[in-house]
Write a structure and sequence with these properties.
- By secondary structure, this protein is mainly alpha-helical.
- The chain has a domain at 56-130: Winged helix-like DNA-binding domain superfamily/Winged helix DNA-binding domain (Arc Repressor Mutant, subunit A, Orthogonal Bundle), CATH 1.10.10.10.
- It is 53% helix and 11% strand.
- It contains 6 helices and 3 strands.
- Strands 1-3-2 form a 3-stranded antiparallel beta sheet.
- A hairpin with a 2-residue loop joins strand 2 and strand 3 (110-115).
- Helix 3 packs across helix 5.
- The longest helix is centred in the middle third of the chain and has 20 residues, at 35-54.
- It is elongated, with a radius of gyration of 25 Å.
Length: 130
């Protein structure tokens, strides 16, 4: 077995340590704590929520199914197309709704769902990446 020798890094002077090893980066974008910074943070949070919703293959398939329909689909029709039980389907739909990708309405005892414009745009953007 060969021996490995570790050479210590050269240490700078105490003045180098005080000033840091790098030049500070220039500020890019809005500063935290400003109205613009808060707006950018909210937008990033909303985008992260949508990306989390789309990261699951089942939810992505559900959104695609809803986006291809001319009319809203009943939850029973959605459930019939997936090898999952109704409570699991409802959980996935709830996450898509919270992300603003799907909307729905109650008609009697049944709920009907459709892809929102934002959901369709997200699908188009993902398809452009594929």
């Amino acid at each position: 077995m060969s021996e490995t020798t570790i050479t210590p890094l050269a240490t700078g002077t105490p003045a180098d340590a005080a000033s840091g090893c790098c030049n500070p980066l220039p500020a890019v974008g809005p500063a935290a704590g400003t109205d613009e910074g808060a707006r950018v943070a909210r937008r990033a949070d909303r985008l992260a929520e949508r990306l989390k919703a789309l990261a699951d293959p089942t939810r992505l398939r559900m959104l695609d199914l809803l986006a291809r329909q001319r009319e809203p689909l009943c939850v029973c029709e959605i459930t019939a197309r997936f090898p999952l039980r109704q409570p699991t389907i409802s959980h996935h739909i709830r996450l898509l709704r919270e992300a603003g990708l799907v909307a729905g309405e109650k008609r009697g005892v049944w709920s009907y769902y459709w892809a929102t414009d934002a959901g369709r745009r997200c699908l188009a953007a993902l398809e452009a990446l594929a």
